[in-house]
Amino acid sequence: MKPLALEDVLDRAIVEFDRALRTVAGAHHAERPSPARDLAEADLDAAARQHSAALMRVNHVGEVCAQALYQGQALTARNDHTRASLERAAREEGDHLAWSMDRIRALGGRPSLLNPLWYAGALAMGVGAGLLGDRWNLAFLAETERQVEAHLTGHLDKLAPEDAPTRAVVAGMRDDEARHRETAVALGAAELPAPARRAMRAMGKVMTTIAYRL
Ligand SMILES: [Fe+2]
Ligand SMILES: [Fe+2]
Questions:
Q1: How do residues 136-165 score in pLDDT, each as one tens digit?
Q2: Mutual orientation of helices 164-186 and 134-158 as an angle, nearest 10°?
Q3: Distance between CA atoms of residues 152 and 132, nearest Å
Q4: 3-class SS letters over the chain
Q5: 188 CA distance to ligand 2 middle (Å)
């Protein structure tokens, strides 16, 4: 493992800065078509539509945080193979960001007002985990992906059965998150201690509760 040189970090930071701006501004373009693309909008009543939009705002916040976590990873990774292997997952998170934003718009909702704050918090945590070394960085990523996957499964229970486009996006994202977790584990992620996993779940709960409203 090579030491992390300041100029490497600065070089990477310049590349990531543009991505950060687009993330917070909600101006991200998907590389893959949205799973909702060919599905007709459901005829939802106002309450169901608002509920769907709020759930997608929560998921969009999750994807803003995923951008920050993967950026933190890219900024601090010691191992070039690890960094390159996670690039695909990071690009897919960009798709999720755009897909969930599209759903928010289609449902007449708005993204979280606190996105810059979510982003900054997640980046600080991602860089913090990165400073502990790749094994712990990957452990944090893998556990995040596991919790997001479980959270998205929960949303499939909460979304109206007739809201096919939103359900398709959530299911598509969930499948990707499962693969992202497998990638992080295959790259040598450590197993996070149970108290850390519990703390992450508690934090996730606070975040989703706030983002549902704001
Ligand atoms: Fe994602
Ligand atoms: Fe993911």
A1: 888 988 999 999 999 999 999 999 999 999
A2: 160
A3: 29
A4: CCCCCHHHHHHHHHHHHHHHHHHHHCCCCCCCCCCCCCCCCCCCCHHHHHHHHHHHHHHHHHHHHHHHHHHHHHHHCCCHHHHHHCHHHHHHHHHHHHHHHHHHHHCCCCCCCCHHHHHHHHHHHHHHHHHCCHHHHHHHHHHHHHHHHHHHHHHHHHCCCCCHHHHHHHHHHHHHHHHHHHHHHHCCCCCCCHHHHHHHHHHHHHHHHHHHHC
A5: 17
Q: What pTM does this model have?
A: 0.85
Buried b (16+ CB within 10 A) or exposed e, 158-190: ebbeebbbbbbbbebbbebbeebbebbbebebb
Give the ligand at the shortest distance from the Cα of 181.
2
153 CA distance to ligand 2 middle (Å)? 14
Residues in CB range of 156: below 8 A, 6 or more apart: 167, 170, 171, 174
Q: Residue 33 Cα, ligand 1 centroid: separation in angstroms?
A: 15
Among residues 105, 107, 122, the alpha carbon closest in space to that of 63 is found at 122
Among all chains, which residue has been given the structure tokens 């398709």? 168
Å from CA of 90 to ligand 2 middle: 7
Dump pLDDT digits (tens) for 58-68. 999 999 999 88
Q: Distance, CA 46 to ligand 2 centroid (Å)?
A: 31
